Amino acid sequence: MSVTTPKDESRKTAPHKNGSGFNLGTYLKDVRNEAKRVTWPTRRNTLITTGAVLAMVTVTCIFFFIVDQVIGLGVRELFGVGG
Fold first, then answer.
1. Tens-digit pLDDT profile for residues 39-61
2. Cα–Cα distance for residue pair 43/36, rounded to 1 Å
3. What stretches pass through the bilayer (predicted)?
4. Entry pTM
5. What is the largest CA-CA distance in the chain?
C-alpha cells in the first residue's frame, strides 16, 4: 500500500535567501503576525480553566496524602518502624 499526493498539491517550502542569516526585524514582524492569528481565550474561560486545574491539583494532593498515610500506617504496623 502506498500513499500518493494529488498532482496539484506540491510541497511548499519557505523561501530561502542565500547568505542572509538571521534578521531580528523580520523575526519580530513574523512573531507579531502569528500572534494576531491566535485565538485567545476570554477572561471567563481562563478563570474557569484555572479553577478546574486548581481543583484537580487539590484533589490529587489529598488523594496522595491519604495513600501516603495508609502506606505509612501499614509499614509502621507491619515492621514497627517509622515513628
1. 989 999 999 999 999 999 999 99
2. 17
3. 46-67
4. 0.55
5. 75
